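User: quick one - fold this with uridine-5'-diphosphate bound?
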Amino acid sequence: MSTSDPDAPVALSVVIPLYNEEESLPHLQQEIANVCAEHGITWEVIYVDDGSSDSSFSVLEKMHQRDSRIKVLQFRSNCGKSDALSAGFKEAAGRYVITMDADLQDDPHEIPRLIARLEEGFDLVSGWKKKRRDPVSKRWPSKFFNRVTGLLSGVRLHDFNCGLKIYRNEVVKTVHVYGELHRYIPVLAALEGFRVGELVVNHRPRQFGRTKFGAARFFRGPLDLITVLFLSKYMRRPLHLFGGLGFVVSLAGLGITAYLVVMRVVKQSYLSNRPILFIGVLLTIVGIQFISLGLLGEMLTKMNASRHIYSIRKKLGD
Ligand code: UDP
Ligand code: MG
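Assistant: Sure. Structure tokens for the protein plus uridine-5'-diphosphate:
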């Protein structure tokens, strides 16, 4: 993919979400431009300013005036990394798309290696910060997060949330990232049928500014995983989950109450001293509620039926 023709189609789009990173930006841009020049890669960089309150935007504005390959989107308010990535993905024209953080922790010198790895036959290659330059308070929970995500999703990666990743363009146009789902992009992509790989990448300590993610991430992460797993498996058939659950639960409840009725009739035993009665009634009601929830889900799914969720890799013929 090497070319020196300025009019050649863009080979690589680099998408960079940022929130208050004024000091890092010029260094980062310089590093990206140097690496791409060295390897003859035609590029564009799309900076997405996620509502920064420092001078990030004016820094970017000046950079754009000097070089039209530098594109800038500015959000009116801070919407989060997922939305910033999503906006950048929409604009990305390159055959390949690389995302990286703006804080210089991700190393642009990895760009050629990422491209080479993708070309081995992947649609998405995620960086793996094997030697991570972050405090322990971040590294350990993140290890746990990666284990659990890998186990539950079946996608075997060491580092789901690495900011440095490369995608074929069709991946970023297909996968829908919102909320805080950026942590699960490899899972979302794998569920669409894209081939996901990983590559050990260099990671550097933060030089300027401070981290934008506090302890809240540890609580929100697991909830988002439930969303991803639920939507991916049951979006189209919610009754299979809730109905199945409801059926088992209400059957247990009905079994218990039926047993109590038989005892009442045959053995004349009093219901007032049978605590199990409450469990029977509770299970029956909860079971019926699960089934109703499943039916409600089916109604929502039907209303939304036109939105196709399959994704086509190739089409031969008309
Ligand atoms: N970021 C963003 N919007 C936010 C928070 C973060 O665009 O609301 C950007 C941030 O500027 C950086 C990247 O997302 O480029 C990763 O953030 P950070 O370095 O703070 O995360 P950490 O490395 O601590 O996980
Ligand atoms: Mg960082």
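One thing worth noting: The longest helix spans residues 238-267.
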